[in-house]
Design a protein that fits this description.
By secondary structure, the chain is mainly α. Helix 1 runs antiparallel to helix 2. The relative contact order is 0.13.
Length: 80
């Protein structure tokens, strides 16, 4: 049996962030909100890099839980 080639795209966190921020700009969110989004996602992508995660499709529910636990351990709220 032939192995099927995956059609899933491998979107980097940086590329996904830029698309999300473009959507936020189109939705007319304030520059301050967009800057906060950029900062917050930057903190996440730095954490993700320590876990050898570079693409959105690598992310699992367990990773999100681990990230939220890491935030909590540093004294930040999960909404951070």
């Amino acid at each position: 049996m032939k192995k099927r080639k995956s059609t899933r795209s491998h979107t980097s966190f940086d590329d996904a962030l830029e698309v999300w921020l473009l959507d936020a700009t189109a939705a007319r969110l304030t520059p301050r909100t967009i800057a906060f989004y950029r900062f917050s996602v930057g903190v996440f992508t730095q954490w993700a890099a320590t876990q050898q995660l570079t693409h959105v499709d690598e992310l699992t529910t367990l990773h999100v839980r681990q990230y939220l636990a890491a935030l909590s351990a540093r004294g930040y709220a999960a909404t951070y």
